[in-house]
Design goal:
Elements (H helix, E strand, L loop, with lengths): L3 E6 L3 H12 L3 E7 L3 H11 L2 E3 L2 H6 L5 E4 L6 H10 L3 E4 L7 H14 L3 E3 L7 H11 L6 E9 L6 H4 L13 H4 L3 H17 L3 E9 L10 E8 L4 E7 L12 E5 L2 E5 L3 E5 L10 E5 L5 H16 L7 H20 L3 E2 L3
Parallel strand pairs: 1-2, 1-4, 2-3, 4-5, 5-6, 7-10
Antiparallel strand pairs: 7-11, 8-9, 8-15, 9-10, 11-12, 12-13, 13-14
Helix pairs in contact: 1-10, 4-5, 5-11, 6-9, 9-11
Length: 344
C-alpha cells in the first residue's frame, strides 16, 4: 500500500479544507464521503473523488477505507472514533478529541488496543513557522519562558450558531453544551493551548477560570477569563470571547514571554531576542509567515506517512488530551469557584 485511503465522516464546514488536503497529499486519497445529509457527501465525493454514503456502517465495513477523518459535531467524536478503531480503521479526529477528558482517554485506549493510528487535527505541529519557533525557543532565543498570554477575541455573526461561518450546513449543535462541550474555550482556544504546549514544552499544572454567556442566545460560554500555572512556575493568562464587538481590532494574538525576549503568534509569527541567542539579531524583531493553507495538506500527508511506516503521527491522541485537560479544568474551576489541579 503506497497511499492511505480515507473516508471523510461529517462533510460540513471544516471537512472541505481537509478534503483539499487529502487531494494535495502524495500518500493519501479520498475513498468515501459520509454524511447524514446526502447532498453534502455527494458534493465532496464529486469534487475530490470516491463515493458518497449516508451510512456510517458502510464506512466501517468497506475494505477500501484504511482511515477515517471524523469531522462530526463534538459529542459524536468518541463513539465514532471508538467504532472506527474497533473496525480496524486508523483515525484522524478533528479537534477537540472529545467533549471531556474521560471520553478522550477512552478513545486513546481503544485505538491503542486495536493497534490503529490516532491523530488529532491540530495544525501547529505541522506548520513550518511554528516548527522554527520551537527550535529557536529550545536554543534559548528568549531565555526561560515565564509567561503566556492567550487571546481569542472574536465577533462571531449570529448565523455562525446556525451554520458556521460558511453556512454549508444548517444545524444548532454549536450552541448546545451537551453537543459542543462548550463555547469559545473548546471551539477555539483549545488550538492555542496545543500550540503553546508544542512550542514551549510547558505542561499546565493548575487553572482557575471564570466564564459566562452574556450576548449570545446559546447554552455555551461567550466570554472566558482564566489563569494557568505551568510546571516550571510560568503563568498564563487566558482571554476569550465570541461576542467581542469589533473583534480583536487588529491586535496581536498570543504571546510567549521569556527572560530574554518574546514571541508573538498572530497572522505573522514574530520573535524578539534581547541577547541574540539562537542566531537571531540582538534587540530586533524577526518575522515569519505561517504556511497556511498548505498546512492542512501537510497534516494529512504526515498522518498518512505515519500510518504507512508504523510511526507516531505529528499530533497524537495524547496531544489532544493535554489540550482538552486545560479546557475541562477551566470549566470545572468556574463551576467549583476554586482552582483545579492538572492532570485530571
Amino acid at each position: 500500500m503506497d497511499r492511505v485511503r480515507f473516508a471523510i465522516v461529517g462533510c460540513g464546514e471544516i471537512a472541505v479544507a481537509t478534503a483539499e488536503g487529502i487531494a494535495a497529499a502524495a500518500h493519501a486519497a479520498l475513498s468515501m464521503a459520509m454524511d447524514t445529509v446526502q447532498s453534502l457527501a455527494q458534493d465532496l465525493a464529486h469534487r475530490f473523488g470516491g463515493r458518497a454514503t449516508t451510512n456510517f456502517e458502510e464506512v466501517l465495513t468497506s475494505p477500501d477505507v484504511d482511515a477515517v477523518y471524523i469531522a462530526t459535531p463534538h459529542y459524536l467524536h468518541a463513539p465514532m472514533a471508538i467504532a472506527a478503531a474497533q473496525a480496524g480503521k486508523h483515525v484522524l479526529l478533528e479537534k477537540p478529541i472529545a467533549t471531556n477528558v474521560a471520553d478522550a482517554k477512552a478513545i486513546i485506549s481503544h485505538c491503542e488496543a486495536e493497534g490503529v493510528t490516532l491523530g488529532i487535527a491540530f495544525l501547529a505541529q505541522v506548520d513550518q513557522a511554528c516548527q522554527e519557533v520551537r527550535r529557536l525557543l529550545a536554543e534559548g532565543a528568549i531565555g526561560e519562558v515565564v509567561g503566556v498570554r492567550y487571546a481569542v477575541l472574536a465577533d462571531k455573526p449570529a448565523h455562525y450558531w446556525r451554520g458556521g461561518y460558511t453556512q454549508r450546513v444548517q444545524t444548532d449543535w454549536r450552541g448546545s453544551k451537551a453537543k459542543a462541550g462548550g463555547g469559545i474555550l473548546i471551539m477555539n482556544l483549545i488550538h492555542n493551548f496545543n500550540a503553546v504546549r508544542f512550542l514551549t514544552g510547558l505542561e499546565a499544572t493548575r487553572v482557575y477560570g471564570e466564564y459566562g454567556t452574556y450576548s449570545t442566545p446559546v447554552e455555551v460560554e461567550d466570554l472566558v477569563f482564566a489563569t494557568v500555572r505551568y510546571h516550571n512556575g510560568a503563568i498564563g493568562c487566558v482571554e476569550g470571547g465570541s461576542a467581542v464587538r469589533g473583534g480583536a481590532a487588529g491586535a496581536d494574538g498570543d504571546r510567549i514571554f521569556g527572560t530574554e525576549g518574546q514571541v508573538v503568534l498572530g497572522r505573522e509569527v514574530r520573535v524578539y531576542s534581547a541577547s541574540g541567542a539562537a542566531g537571531l539579531p540582538a534587540g530586533e524583531w524577526t518575522t515569519m509567515t505561517p504556511d497556511q493553507p498548505a498546512v492542512r495538506a501537510r497534516l494529512v500527508e504526515e498522518f498518512a506517512l505515519a500510518v504507512l511506516n508504523g510511526e507516531q503521527p505529528p499530533v497524537t491522541g495524547y496531544d489532544g488530551l493535554k489540550a482538552l485537560e486545560i479546557v475541562e479544568g477551566i470549566y470545572r474551576s468556574g463551576e467549583l469557584c476554586q482552582p483545579v489541579y492538572l492532570p485530571l
